[in-house]
Amino acid sequence: MGQIKLESVTKSFGPVEVIPPLDLTIEDGEFTVFVGPSGCGKSTLLRLIAGLEDITSGKISIDGQDATHVPPAKRGLAMVFQSYALYPHMSVRKNIAFPMKMAGVPVEEQNRRIEAAAAALNLTDYLDRRPGQLSGGQRQRVAIGRAIVREPGAFLFDEPLSNLDAALRVGMRLEISELHKRLKTTMIYVTHDQVEAMTMADKIVVLQAGVIEQVGSPLELYRAPRNVFVAGFIGSPKMNLLTGPEAAKHNAHTIGTRPEHIAISQTEGTWSGTIGVSEHLGSDTFFHVKCDGFDDPLTVRAGGEVALKYGDKVFLTPDLTQLHRFDAQGLRIA
Amino acid sequence: MARAVTPQRKALNTAIAWGIGLLIFFPILWTILTSFKTEAQAISDPPVFLFFDWTLENYSVVQERSDYMRFLWNSVIIAGGSTILGIIIAIPAAWSMAFVPSKRTKDILLWMLSTKMLPAVGVLYPIYLIFIRMGILDTRMGLVVVLMLINLPIIVWMLYTYFREIPGEILEAARMDGASLKEEILYVLTPMAMPGIASTLLLNIILAWNEAFWTLNLTAAKAAPLTAFIASYSSPEGLFYAKLSAASTMAIAPILILGWFSQKQLVSGLTFGAVK
After folding, report:
1. Which domain holds residue B125?
2. In chain B, which residues touch A (CB < 8 A)?
3. Which domain holds residue A257?
């Protein structure tokens, strides 16, 4: 219950084509994350699946049924919005009951599902409040509750955590992952935050300008980015990308090395440079090292207790077995 | 930096504001006062302000000569009916303009408003003839329709402005939750826009209640509302100012009372979105 298939789907707003022909299959029960920078078309893609926007051409099928011209209400999908989009004039109970009321679910069954959802989401004490009296995290849980009780074929999440503060975001991230493990329902999750994508997804779809750059599991994308864009986008801090003579040494147009794949030493190494800004996270330290002959500083990960300070001379050695090479078109060289 | 306001300046401003307020209110006050005078005092020169023999005679004469309740009832039906009908038509119209605008939405809104720029007398003949042909001259139904059409542009504009303040995502959420268009408007949009709808309702009842051109021209005896009731006291054979004032006071009293009790709602509705 919940396979979603897009075939040659396109979307244009007037003369502007935001999604060029696109094919994608989301398997039943999969947690798929659409990730990409602002304006890459990821939210538009989600809205096309939801039916809130009409596709310009192509076909969308849900569970093998052609859903291209089916209105959103009939697609059997539930959506959680960035702004939560709760009904401000209704109590939490009525908000959660609304989709069931629309579907004509008997009242006793409605109440049973509301109680169950409220218990699962820690909302039992708030059922009679209005959304305006709740905190951001509680509102988000109400929005999720409203989605759960419908028992949809798939959940669609449109940047659901971006209005929450950092601590709450981590908590809600876990709750949503937990929910997925428990319900085993297909989930499609849109975010611009690659950390959310890496931590939650079974499958990540990286988008840029409406084009799918790569589809794969988080680790596949991390270990073998298909092109320079994915290499730079997935991973935090970003992969170091070098062009010019240094790349030519490895028969590539661009080479990439992740911060954790560079060894730092005060005595010897391949590249020499000076320490710039350092970020101490306790468990790790990230040094931004200005290397001789490179335009941009390199980011290097070291242990938590490394005693190096601004201006210190250091040497860096990349792990050549973990080097990523890309050609002039930006595509990965195997 | 906040502007410094001296106490003198504040007192002066207050006095000016009160002066202007009283100036605006004075004609209404004078009408009410005159309604309690005798006909002789009403036209005396110099005019008497407060020190006259207060009398209720005018009210009893007016009540005897014409059936106030019948006019009042016609006014209620015509003002209320045209406003409610207008709102029912305007909600879907404003919904489509606010949430699914097309390239021409702005033009349509301006075009609707432009009908208010036409002098009403310009279309009196055609409408009068249509009313005769349809046999709805001097009927409340006919006036409900005409006044609804007259005020529809304003109702649509006001609702459009309020609806624009409602986040579209909430309506999309309703759509995802399985609501049909009708249910979306009924259960989500309308309750959320209730403050705006209420002030639109109030303003249009007031406009329709006070409308005199069409109500005077398209009614005779059966469907005549309070405007006709007042007009019947301004006769060419010599004016009875005191009785005219009594009739006017009786005609405006209901709407004045309604306006007084709903002023908070009206003001908050009219400034909705403007001071955000």
Report:
1. 66-232
2. 167, 169-170, 172-180, 183, 187-188, 191-192, 194
3. 237-326
Q: Which residue of A has its CA nearest to B189?
A: A87
Helices B241-261, B263-270: axis angle to 10 degrees equals 70
Cβ distance A85 to B167 less than 8 Å, yes or no, reads yes
Pair (B45, B138) in one structural domain: no
Supply the pTM of this predicted model: 0.80
Alpha-carbon distance of B219 to B209, in angstroms, equals 15
* Amino acid identity, position A77: L
Of A73, A74, A87, nearest to B170 by CB-CB distance is A87
In chain B, what is the straight-line distance between the N-terminal and C-terminal CA atoms, in Å?
21
Within chain B, residue ranges assigned H as helices are: 7-34, 39-42, 57-65, 68-99, 105-114, 124-134, 140-164, 168-176, 181-183, 190-192, 194-210, 213-217, 226-231, 241-261, 263-270
- AA letter at B198: A
Instruction: Note whether residue A150 is domain-resident.
Output: yes
Structure tokens at A246: 């240094």
Buried b (16+ CB within 10 A) or exposed e, B207-238: bbbebeebbeebbeeebbbbbbbbbebeeeee
Tell me, yes or no, whether B85 lies in a domain.
Answer: yes
- CA A264, distance to chain mean position in Å, is 31
Segment holding A218, helix H or strand E? helix A218-223
Contacts of A83 in chain B (CB under 8 A): 167, 169
Are residue A8 and residue A90 in the same domain, yes or no? yes
Task: Walk along chain A (334 residues) and give the pLDDT tens digit of each residue.
Answer: 689 999 999 999 888 899 999 999 999 999 999 999 988 999 999 999 999 999 999 999 999 999 999 999 889 999 999 989 999 999 999 999 999 999 999 999 999 999 999 998 889 999 999 998 998 889 999 999 999 998 899 999 999 998 888 888 888 899 899 999 999 999 999 999 989 999 999 999 999 999 999 999 999 999 999 999 999 999 889 999 999 888 899 999 999 999 999 999 888 889 999 999 999 888 889 999 999 888 889 999 988 777 888 999 999 999 999 999 999 999 999 7
B13 alpha-carbon distance from chain centroid: 30
- Given a contact cutoff of 8 angstroms between Cβ atoms, the answer to whether A300 and A307 are in contact is no
